[in-house]
């Protein structure tokens, strides 16, 4: 149950931002006369190609931190419940082993069958708990994806960015990024402001 939530979601967000290549303010035909290399060079120098550091974004995005806390609390609660059930089962097994010599054959058979059923139930509970956690985590990641993606689309349109790339030390899809093109701070501020408004509703 103790999954590396942060690293898993960092990978997901990295893929998200890499996929969120945005060209909102590029009217058809506006750059058609330029060659591919000329267009790229111009876009890079005029700031219409920018990037977000996904590590910094996750470290400072309040919604992500709240999401992480919620998932960790659910994982801890489920782990504690599973541990309690496992301990209770182990006590029953130990009790049976202690008293087996004084039991009749029918009592031993009945107790062993009951313990076998409990062991199977415990295994199913563990499996269902893990599946439930995985589903919750997937839903939370989808919410994160939508929040960041929707914000970036609107922000890029407002600022005139044609491409928003992502950079992460752990998963560098970009080998070099000029710091002057980084917009992580403004994206984090915008996301946090939007999340704060949501919480007040």
Shape, please?
rod-shaped
Series of secondary-structure elements, N-terminal to C-terminal:
HHEHHHEH
Task: Report the span from N to C terminus.
Answer: 33 Å
Mean pLDDT across all amino acids? 80
Provide the domain count.
1
Q: What fraction of residues sit in β-strands? A: under 5%
Structure class = mainly alpha
Strand order of the largest sheet: 1-2
Biggest β-sheet strands, sense, barrel? 2 strands, parallel
What does this protein look like?
It is built from six helices and two strands; from the N terminus they run ααβαααβα. With 201 residues, it is mainly α. Residues 1-8 and 18-41 have low confidence and may be disordered. Helix 1 (5-19) runs parallel beside helix 5. It has one domain. A two-stranded parallel ribbon has the order 1-2. Residues 1-28 form the signal peptide. Keywords: Coiled coil, Signal.
Write the layout of secondary structure elements.
Elements: H1 5-19, H2 36-45, E1 49-53, H3 54-60, H4 62-99, H5 105-159, E2 163-167, H6 184-200
């Amino acid at each position: 149950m103790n999954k590396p939530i942060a690293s898993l979601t960092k990978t997901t967000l990295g893929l998200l931002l890499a996929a969120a290549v945005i060209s909102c303010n590029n009217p058809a035909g506006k750059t058609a006369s330029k060659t591919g290399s000329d267009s790229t060079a111009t876009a890079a120098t005029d700031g219409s190609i920018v990037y977000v550091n996904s590590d910094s974004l996750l470290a400072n995005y309040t919604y992500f931190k709240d999401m992480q806390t919620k998932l960790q609390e659910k994982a801890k609660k489920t782990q504690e419940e599973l541990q309690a059930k496992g301990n209770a089962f182990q006590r029953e097994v130990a009790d049976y082993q202690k008293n087996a010599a004084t039991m009749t054959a029918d009592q031993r058979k009945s107790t062993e069958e009951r313990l076998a059923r409990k062991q199977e139930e415990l295994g199913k509970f563990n499996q269902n708990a893990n599946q439930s956690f995985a589903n919750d985590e997937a839903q939370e990641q989808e919410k994160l994806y939508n929040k960041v993606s929707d914000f970036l689309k609107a922000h890029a349109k407002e600022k005139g960015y044609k491409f928003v790339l992502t950079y992460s030390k752990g998963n560098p899809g970009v080998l070099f990024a000029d710091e002057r093109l980084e917009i992580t701070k403004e994206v984090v501020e915008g996301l946090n402001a939007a999340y704060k408004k949501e919480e007040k509703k």
